[in-house]
């Protein structure tokens, strides 16, 4: 009886903790959405009115239209989507290939290569930013999609994730495929990669989010308004003389929608406890 009560008490404490934590996480999101449909004067009130007296849905229209009525925000959304999607696809492909090679191929100096690769993770981006920009200028790819995508085709973190996951991939399955006459490209594309769902999804979400929110590098290599990304558009809007906080929050909501959709649709793969069910089947 005492054990049952103690277990119930711990469960109640866990639920209370989860409720408090979820509330802390959700409050900024609720604030962002509610303020996006408020007049600017209400947003600045103290205490903050969580329910507005005047719903201003036109804030979203004004945000999409822009201060000059050019609808440039739609082009900036497209730019961010192209860059984030391209970098995500190349990161998944190249990281999985490198991780597969480091995990399942035994060659002299393999561990040294892996350690050297991991050492690059300790170098801040700010250290290589200027040399990278100079290379971009020499290649004359500034103010282009290639200039935004090329420096981030893959990451050491992505290789690390794929390598650690593939170390646990059953060798017996690979040996059986080789005995059946399968080449390494066939084994990788038809057996290994399709059964890396959880780690590929995790890497894809993290990479897409990182590129979607990227500001520093686009600020350096992009000059034209048509090639700017969403963070640059938001920064530009905030710097304008007459900034409407309601419209700014509406822009933030629109910019957050793709990440919400991506996570909600991929969350079932984000954490998986049955990694090899399809392989064993």
Structure notes:
The protein is mainly α. It has helices at 2-36, 40-43, 58-65, 72-104, 110-119, 125-139, 145-149, 156-166, 171-179, 184-192, 197-212, 216-221, 230-239, 245-270, 277-280. Helix 3 (58-65) crosses helix 14 (245-270) and helix 4 packs across helix 8 (156-166). Mean pLDDT is 84; it is low at 273-281. The chain is built from 15 helices and no strands. The protein has a single domain (66-280), classed as MetI-like (MetI-like fold, Orthogonal Bundle). The protein is globular, with a radius of gyration of 24 Å.
Radius of gyration: 24 Å
- Span between termini: 43 Å
Largest sheet: none
The helix-strand sequence is: HHHHHHHHHHHHHHH
Task: Present the secondary structure layout.
Elements: H1 2-36, H2 40-43, H3 58-65, H4 72-104, H5 110-119, H6 125-139, H7 145-149, H8 156-166, H9 171-179, H10 184-192, H11 197-212, H12 216-221, H13 230-239, H14 245-270, H15 277-280
Structure summary:
Helices cover 72% and strands 0% of the residues. It has helices spanning 2-36, 40-43, 58-65, 72-104, 110-119, 125-139, 145-149, 156-166, 171-179, 184-192, 197-212, 216-221, 230-239, 245-270, 277-280.
List keywords for this structure.
single chain; 281 residues; mainly alpha; MetI-like fold; disordered C terminus
């Amino acid at each position: 009886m005492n054990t049952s009560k103690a277990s119930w008490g711990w469960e109640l404490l866990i639920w209370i903790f989860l409720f408090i934590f979820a509330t802390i996480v959700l409050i900024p999101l609720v604030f962002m959405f509610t303020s996006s449909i408020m007049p600017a004067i209400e947003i600045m009130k103290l205490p903050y009115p969580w329910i507005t007296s005047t719903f201003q849905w036109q804030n979203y229209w004004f945000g999409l239209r822009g201060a000059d009525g050019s609808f440039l925000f739609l082009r900036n959304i497209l730019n961010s989507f192209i860059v984030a999607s391209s970098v995500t696809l190349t990161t998944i492909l190249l990281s999985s290939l490198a991780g597969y090679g480091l995990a399942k191929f035994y060659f002299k100096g393999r561990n040294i290569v892996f350690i050297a690769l991991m050492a690059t993770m300790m170098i801040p981006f700010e250290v290589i930013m200027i040399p990278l920009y100079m290379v971009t200028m020499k290649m004359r790819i500034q103010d282009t999609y290639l200039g935004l995508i090329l420096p981030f085709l893959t990451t050491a973190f992505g290789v690390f994730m794929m390598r650690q996951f593939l170390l646990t991939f059953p060798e017996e399955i690979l040996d059986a495929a080789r005995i059946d006459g399968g080449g390494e490209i066939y084994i990788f594309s038809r057996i290994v990669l399709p059964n890396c769902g959880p780690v590929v999804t995790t890497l894809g979400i993290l990479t897409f989010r990182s590129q979607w929110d990227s500001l520093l590098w686009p600020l350096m290599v992009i000059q034209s308004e048509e090639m700017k990304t969403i963070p640059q558009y938001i920064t530009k809007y905030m710097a304008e003389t007459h900034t409407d906080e309601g419209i700014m929050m509406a822009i933030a909501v629109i910019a957050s929608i793709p990440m919400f959709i991506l996570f909600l649709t991929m969350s079932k793969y984000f954490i998986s406890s049955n990694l090899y069910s399809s392989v064993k089947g």
